[in-house]
Each structure stands twice: as C-alpha cells, then as structure tokens.
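Format notes (please read before filing issues)

Several people have asked whether sequences and structure tokens are stored in separate files. They are not. Every record keeps both together, in the order shown below: the sequence lines, then the token lines. Line labels are part of the format and must not be stripped during preprocessing.
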Amino acid sequence: QVELAESGGGSVQAGGSLRLACVASGTIAGSTCMGWFRQAAGKEREGVAAIYIGERNSATYYADSAKRRFTISRDNDKNTVYLQMNSLKPEDTGMYYCAATPGYGHCLDYEYNSWGQGTQVTVSS
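Then the structure lines:
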C-alpha cells in the first residue's frame, strides 16, 4: 500500500478554481489507479475523477458532474496527482479524498485500498 497526503482545499466562491494535490509515498504498482473522491455532509462518497497509471500509458476518467470542469493529471517526478477544479459550484462542496489501488483501467469502478485523510472544499454561492 501507499501513503497519500492531500492538500489544496479551501473556501472559494462559485465560479472559482482550486487545485488539489495528492502526494504518494511508498511503492506504486506498475498498473495503478489513483482517484479523487468526495463526500458531502449527509451523502455517500462518490468518485469524481481518476487516472490509470500504466507502465506505458495512462488514461483519465471523470464522473459526469466533473466533465469539462475538472482535470486530473500526474507529475511522475513528484509522485503527485492533481485535480484542477474550475467553475466550481456550491454542490462541489465536500471532503475530497485521494485514493490508490492496483488496477488496469476503468478506474472509477474499483474498490480502492489506500486513502488519504482528505482536504475540505467549500464553495459558497
């Protein structure tokens, strides 16, 4: 398993932007899914975006609510995955978690086995 540490959350007004970062430490398997999940108060946790990290390729996956507004990316040199969030809406408010698991694609469909502590995102109207 890997250890994950999120940062970058905060409070913004609707229409604003935030960039979340997830630093991974430990051994990352050759085929790994890393994802961003969020949980709003009183609601179930949901997948927002994920990235497949293969030995020779990568792919990204987005929930419908995140398409065209959020971008997931990675920096291999820094062992970091980012979530750029633009055009934020009040309904994007929640605790955002980074997670990782061995995987081979369709990364929003997996049960993740490593989780960070989360970073709070609050969007006001």
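For reference, the curators noted about this record: Residues 9 and 45 are 17 Å apart (CA to CA). The mean pLDDT is 94.
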